[in-house]
Structure of TlpA family protein disulfide reductase:
Amino acid sequence: MKKILSLLLLFVSTVGFSQSEMPRIDLTTVDGNTINSKNLSKEDKVIVVSLWATWCVPCLKELDAISEIYADWQEETGVELFAVSVDDSRTVNRVKPLINGKGWDYTVLLDTNNDFQRALGAATVPLTLLVKNNEIVYRHSGYSPGAEYELYEKIKEYSN
């Protein structure tokens, strides 16, 4: 009985913390403008939302790997990637120089209070989401080389 109760508790906590709809959270662009996360997803268009931080090596590797093939993804599917930095007030000043140096062609947003990260129930970064019609249709934590190709297969699956 204890095992069943433990499994049920684990299941409920997992379901409770995994968000299926995009939360309504105000994010800031690197230029200081405010945008609500609900406005990122446009009708019937798949978007990628990647939570990352300047201090997160796997995050940087993932965004670098995607950057190399992002233009092809856009040409084939029209997908748009929003890179949401979860850097706090101590490290957020590193974001703009880093993205300028990397030459990433993503829309970069800032979640310095981690409101968006908390609303998604994201314990760690990187966290990559596919969103269509404000519904999270795919969710992946962590990064290993080649994961960008699996992500692209999911983008194509949901773009049809």
Notes: The longest strand covers residues 46-52.
